[in-house]
Amino acid sequence: MDEFKIDEEHKLVLTKDVWIVHKNGVPQTTIPDKLFKYYSLSQNNLDALRNGYFFLSNPKVFNDPFDCCSNLIIEKRTPAINGAYTPLINDIKDKGITCFSKDGMNPLMWGHYSNSYKGFVLKFDSKLNTTRTPEIKNDLLTGVIYSSDPTPTTIKNSFSEYYQLVVKLKHWEYENEWRLIIDKNDTRLEKLYFDKNSVEEINLGYQIFHNIHSDTDLHRRYTELINIAEQEYPHALLYIVGPHETKFQLTKRRLIQARDIMDAARLFK
Q1: In the chain, domain spans
Q2: 206-223 residue pLDDT tens
Q3: Cα separation of 12 and 16, whole Å?
Q4: Most buried among 162, 200, 229, 251, using CB within 10 Å?
Q5: Would you say 40 and 46 are in contact if contact means Cβ atoms under 8 Å apart?
């Protein structure tokens, strides 16, 4: 077999011993020049920014219970016993995944993943330049396949593991997701360090500035974020992202004096 039909739009085609995704007949082989990662302004995310690492998640903690779903592979399906609820179908301990988007100006992504514009988004050069360690067996940067009705496969097919890790329901297509999948020699590995020079921009949600005077914890975390940006990412440009003044879309403005909160707040009324 040198082709596998996923659905009416997608198929996998074996090309020089590599399975390539085709969408509407077009090979999907181009990696974006830039990738964006959305963050809430949590203490854990500030620590990751300060120390320059991605957290490697087990898919079982994702907000989509069908992400990396074992039901895509026929032999991995587990029937309910005595009417009990189906067990976790995406608990994969020897993989670690960190997620990106091709789009850094997506209103839904800003609303869902940056705590309603009170977080930040990093713009990366897609090379990322992550640190390889003995705990990492392999890594793969790949786009997600969005399908409304994906065809299940068998574990006998060599692409079955990859298939399980990249197919998501079409409802999530707005995310334009690319993911870095780490094959771990050590299941305890949770952090993947990156070259801080690969961060080109730090984009701040406009709601930070609208709430900063009434929320002392937000003020503290914003100050910490700016300290990190100045100390660890002096090369990265700072922007504020929020609603355009007259158009029905997001816009971004350069933030020159990051510590002048009042001036920053006036950018978005």
Answers
A1: 34-54+103-131+195-269
A2: 999 888 888 899 999 999
A3: 13
A4: 229
A5: no
